[in-house]
């Protein structure tokens, strides 16, 4: 990079529109969407799609609800030409979907495009030529008048060709390519000249598409250009104003949104922002941005995984794990405070039960795009108690009391620090099971027991059990004012273990085996140490007994 970029780059000129209205507008309905994945997206791929991939992508777009799909540049390649033919001949285009093809303003290319569309019920023919000063000067060697002539001759050829195929319901689109780099009054002049040829009406409007062929300004400037253009256009009611933002500055989505506020009726783009260089505007993000404002985008991404997989297959480009709404990690929190807030958010949401989505750090319900809540919280060394507790709850239905969460998260933290990797739900369960002696051979194991009140009208409980300690079976008995205290009494009598119960929780498991219950005891040992015990069983009383034995097992391990 150079130290004095002002000697090499010029700032983008702003638009003189002091009475601009778009900043206070709100988007209240979705624009018309056009997917150009099969054209602009396709022309940017290392290996353009073959017919099969194009067909798979087309079917995906139809399923997602796209009603306008730019399917090809049919005069560019036999593959593209044949693809358009196959769609028509195989009757693959639903009646409510209209296909679009792109052509330069050259007679032979336009004729070939019409040939590809023979027999289509309806179609949009999209004509373009670049209009900006640098293209006039450098690429075409043309004056303004020549540029208008080129656009008009293309528009005339299109009109003439369409009349030769009256069985098709034709619509026409014109793009002054490089619109954003074009003098605004000249852009309007070229477009008016094209409209003069096509003579659109409110019932049969033409589409004027205003591309940010290369994104060169902040999005507010694009919005100014769109509002300026819409105000100056003579036949606004006979025109669908379309925008086609690219993403060179990384603000394609913002540019599209502001352009819609500024009067655009239609947006052209690609799924996940594929397209030339940094891509076309991302239609998935745009649609879901609307959705999160309570506006039905009229596009359905309920099965986002399938959409991602298909697009990755067809484009041979991976969707970034941080891609809005679609990436593998976008609903995942690793960090403790985020996990804590999300967990509390879900609990509050469940309690309110008003249907309104309000979960911290999650702008959308992952379930709405087909994602499970399992991936919402993942645990590594950055995680806290809330995350660990969430995973045990989601995976095993365990609702750990707060102080147990704190203790166990330290165990998990230690493992994560030691292994320097993410811990799976399986890793966490293994650690929980081992820490609280839930499975496998343990120092204390319950073999059998019975318990009863000593007298019908009494609160005194008697516990009689067979417990193995270190593999050696022993019969023990104890008394107390409840089951737990009678078990503690038996432990004291049998092995001299002294534990006081400070806290007790129990609940039915919400996941997995539905008839299971979990019990948690927080005990204080004679030396002042706090020891937690956990018991899980089909019978809640037995779960409590097991929890006490789990705590007893805790006394046998080093702190
Ligand atoms: C911004 C966009 O995405 S625009 C769409 C771009 N997409 C593509 O180009 C993909 C498909 N294109 C192709 O396969 C080829 O470019 C074709 C078949 C269309 C044309 O191929 P060729 O005839 O070999 O021409 P080439 O690709 O070199 O195009 C450049 C010529 O077209 C002219 N041209 C460029 N755009 C246009 C246009 N919109 N209308 C008329 N002429 C144009 C150029 O001035 C240049 O003319 P010159 O040879 O007299 O200097
Ligand atoms: C042909 C036009 C619409 C285009 O793709 C662009 O300018 O980016």
Automatic annotation (TrEMBL):
Cofactor(s) recorded in Swiss-Prot or TrEMBL: Mg(2+)
Keyword annotations: Amino-acid biosynthesis, Branched-chain amino acid biosynthesis, Cytoplasm, Leucine biosynthesis, Magnesium, Metal-binding, Transferase
List of residues binding Mg(2+): 40, 244, 246, 280
Subcellular location: Cytoplasm
Function: Catalyzes the condensation of the acetyl group of acetyl-CoA with 3-methyl-2-oxobutanoate (2-ketoisovalerate) to form 3-carboxy-3-hydroxy-4-methylpentanoate (2-isopropylmalate).
Subunit details: Homodimer.
Protein known as: 2-isopropylmalate synthase
Originating species: Hypericibacter adhaerens
